Structures are given as C-alpha cells and as structure tokens.
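Collaborator request, handled under Task 6.
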Amino acid sequence: MKRIEFVVKDKTYGIPNAWELLTPEQYMDVCRLLVDFAAGKYSVMEVRLRYVCQMMGWNPDKVKGDAAWQNLYLLARQADFMFEIVLPVRWTECRKTFGSKPGRQSRSTSRRHIRGICRNKSINTVSTLALPSS
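Structure tokens returned to the collaborator:
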C-alpha cells in the first residue's frame, strides 16, 4: 500500500507509506525518527505513531482518550515501509540477514549482537530498518 488513506467527516486524508512518496523534509523527519529508534529511544510502534503524527501535523502529547489512541494505533500499524520484519531461523540465516560474512564482522551490527538476537528463543521477530534503495 503506497498511501494510508482514511476519511473523517467526509474529508479524505492520506499519509505516504513508501520512501518514494516522501518529500525531502518528510524524508529528513523519518531519518530523525530512525536515528532515535537506533539509539533505543523509541520502539518500532512508537516510531510509527510519531510518523503518523508528524505527517498529519498532530502533537502526540495532545492525543487524549482511548478512542483517539485506538484510531492512531490503527493508522500507525499500517505505516510499515520503514521496517522489514525478519524471522531468524538459525545463525547462518542471521548472518545472511544482517550482512555479516563468516569470519568477518559487519560494520553496522556486531556478531555478538547478532548471536544474541538469534540465540534468544524468546524473540520471535527482529525489526530491521528498511532503507530506500539508491
């Protein structure tokens, strides 16, 4: 889905849901959110919630009431272009997924970190950034 569209009081609103639909300013906003995500400041869902709020010009601190949060959550769940869900099956699959070659360390992710993710049986999915192709 390229755009997230919804109707409120007979007016249709749309939120970009693909890298190529972002303006340069929106792209920079998303990059800032992803930097905060990489630093551990936000979870995947928090990034998605904040993304929707930024695109709509809403302040997330002013969202009040269960119904408003439920609607925002439903919109945010659809903003999936920023992340790719990876299901690691075994260590060799993790190396392929994260770009690490046998005997070498990936620049972006250390082997120790990858091993921790892949060997932890309680983790069912791993979110990785889905950056645009150049």
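The cover message to the collaborator said: "The first strand starts at residue 3 and ends at 8. Residues 24-38 form the longest helix (15 residues). Please let us know whether this matches your experimental observations."
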